Amino acid sequence: MTSAPNGYPAEAEALEECTKSFEELKLITDADLTKPERKLLKKFKKEEEKAAKAAEKERKAKELEAQRLAKQAANTVEVKELTLNDFETEKFGNLFIQSNKKTGRTWTTINSLSKAKEGEMVWIRCRLAKSRVQGNKMCFLNLRQSMASVQGLIMGKEMTLFAKDLMRETVVDLYAKVCTVQEPIVSCSQSDVELAVERIYCVSKSDVLPFQIDDAARSDAEFKRMMAENPEEKPVEVSQDTRLNNRVLDLRTPANQGIFRIQSGTCLLFREILTKNGFTEIHTPKMIATASEGGADVFKLDYFGGSAFLAQSPQLYKQMSLMGDMDRVFEIGPVFRSEKSFTHRHLTEFVGLDMEMCFKDHYHEVLDMLDQTFNHIFKGLNERYQEEIEAVRQQYPFEDLLFQYPCLRLKYSEAMKLLREKGPAILEEQIAQIKATTNCPETLKNKQAHLESVPKHGDSDDISTEDEKILGEVIHREYKQDFYIIDKFPSHFRPFYSMEDPEDPTYANSYDIFIRGEEVMSGAQRIHDSELLLKRAKKCGVDLGPIQGYVDAFKTGAMPHAGGGVGMERVVMLFLGLNNIRKSSLFPRDPKRITP
Question: What does pTM read for this prediction?
Answer without folding.
Answer: 0.85
